[in-house]
Specification:
heterodimer; A: 2 domains; 36% strand; B: 344 residues; alpha+beta; T-fold; 2 domains; three-stranded antiparallel sheet; 38% helix
Chain lengths: 121, 344
């Protein structure tokens, strides 16, 4: 009896290819974002990208407005003084993170699975 | 076909084991130390994880209230120093001040928590720098630097007093590292062995995220994209210091918050530095010192401070890193030129 038939070999190759493809899709750190995770003190919201919308998020010092459309997602306004979060502009790629520290709000872009558990900055 | 079924089953087990691990991470957010704290706990039931994080949150709140230059214990000490008297210091502050002396010496003075007056002058001590405040004039900066305030000028016992009239304390350069150390200890005491504590981008890893290591992305100083990825070893802390964290613009010039103790002005030549070390306090202080050291001197300062894992991004689009860092980091994209250096 042969250890592996030709059909077994095909299935084996397909299986390995399937795992390699999943690794490439889920673990490599680039690609267009499909969702944004918005975190504020005591609350988390997930926004599916692709459409168009706007969200008011209450933070530590007031309300930040976050907007998204086909270009990506961004802080439209925030009650902080320096407005670094607003000036950052559009986030478009998975892995990108922007924070309004005074207001305690972060936006993190993801693409399917989670690439990183945290971002050092 | 039996073999084929076994192979397919094995593949699916590998795939679904990977998917399943993501569902057992509980995430918690709160504000402390002037930043957003995120704690991710793996493997504990939700109630136990929440209890442990509550304890950590109380620790961070205490540190926030006491180690800020104008509040609590450190605020009282700074007031006493200004008045030319002394103030009693508790065990945490005592330990932190002694570490400050050691770190200043190790860094050759590039990390100097005794330059609090300079940080006040620049307006970088306030949570939010007053809008429109111009950079300080050269005479005011020179008046502080002439006196060369140093942690050596601080007499630290049960109380602390200064022998240099220009010495004021700002522990912001390593207080987050200390908080991470305290937080990691607290979680371990509470029985949490697998967690990630993220204090505004400075991160300590405990254990693993299930079958895999905790994965960290390192920010590109040019924007919010990720520049590099790294897997953390249990107990390690990763700290990044960058010119994008706090800055202001005045008459077309940009001034960031990492001041060079030699000039009294923002350090030039560096965009960001990332350090990984088992000692969170050392990692925090070293990231600042190496930023100040710049692309020419960083490797010698890294050697003096005993840090092996360093990455420095300079203002000419080059990434400098130690060989040990190069061996474990994954750089994303090809926007930068890489230069790997051996520690002397």
């Amino acid at each position: 009896m042969k250890f592996l038939t030709f059909a077994d070999g095909i299935v084996l190759a397909l299986g390995i290819g399937f795992v390699v493809a999943l690794y490439a899709i889920l673990w490599t750190p680039s690609g267009d974002a499909t969702a944004a995770i918005i975190q504020a003190p005591g609350q988390t919201a997930t926004v599916e990208l692709g459409g168009e919308g706007q969200l008011d998020v209450d933070g530590a010092i007031g309300t930040s407005t976050i907007a998204w459309d086909e270009r990506g997602i961004r802080f439209l306004s925030s009650p902080c003084k320096a407005k670094h979060c607003v000036h950052t502009g559009w986030l478009t790629r998975a892995g990108q993170v922007v924070a309004c520290l005074p207001n305690g709000i972060t936006i993190e872009l993801r693409n399917g699975g989670l690439r990183y558990d945290a971002i050092a900055f | 076909m039996q073999t084929a079924r076994r192979v397919l089953l094995a593949c699916l087990i590998v795939v679904f084991a990977g998917c399943g691990s993501g569902h057992r991470i509980h995430e918690y957010n709160f504000l402390a130390l002037g930043t957003l704290i995120k704690v991710s706990v793996y493997g504990e039931d939700e109630e136990a994880a929440a209890r442990a994080v509550k304890l950590l949150e109380a620790d961070f709140a205490w540190l926030h209230d006491n180690f800020y230059p104008t509040r609590g214990e450190l605020g009282s000490l700074n007031e006493a120093l200004k008045a030319g008297t002394s103030a009693v210091v508790g065990p945490d502050l005592h330990a932190l001040l002694l570490r400050g002396q050691e770190l200043e010496q190790m860094s050759g003075g590039l990390f100097n928590p005794a330059l609090g007056e300079l940080f006040f002058l620049w307006g970088f001590v306030d949570d939010e720098r007053p809008a429109g405040l111009p950079p300080p004039d050269a005479e005011s900066v020179a008046r502080i630097l002439e006196q060369q305030p140093s942690m050596r000028d601080l007499d630290i016992g049960e109380s602390a007093a200064r022998s240099n009239a220009r010495l004021l304390l700002d522990l912001g350069g390593y207080a987050k590292g200390y908080a991470l150390e305290v937080g990691a200890r607290r979680l371990l005491q509470a029985g949490v062995e697998n967690a990630l504590i993220n204090a505004g981008g400075d991160i300590t890893a405990l254990g693993h995220a299930g079958e895999r290591a905790w994965r960290i992305g390192i920010r590109d100083p040019d924007g919010p994209a990720v520049l590099a990825g790294i897997e953390m070893r249990p107990g390690e802390t990763v700290v990044s210091s960058g010119d994008y964290e706090r800055f202001f613009e005045h008459q077309g010039s940009r001034f960031h918050h990492i001041l060079d103790p030699r000039s009294g002005y923002p350090a030039s030549g560096t965009r960001s530095v990332t350090v990984i070390h088992m000692d969170a306090v050392l990692a925090d202080a070293a990231a600042t010192a190496l930023f100040v050291a710049g692309p020419e001197e960083w490797i010698n300062v890294a050697s003096d401070m005993g840090v092996r894992y360093v990455m420095l991004v300079d203002d000419e689009h080059r990434i400098h890193m130690t060989r040990a860092m190069a061996d474990r980091i994954e750089i994303i994209g090809d926007d930068y030129r890489l230069e790997v250096a051996d520690l002397p």
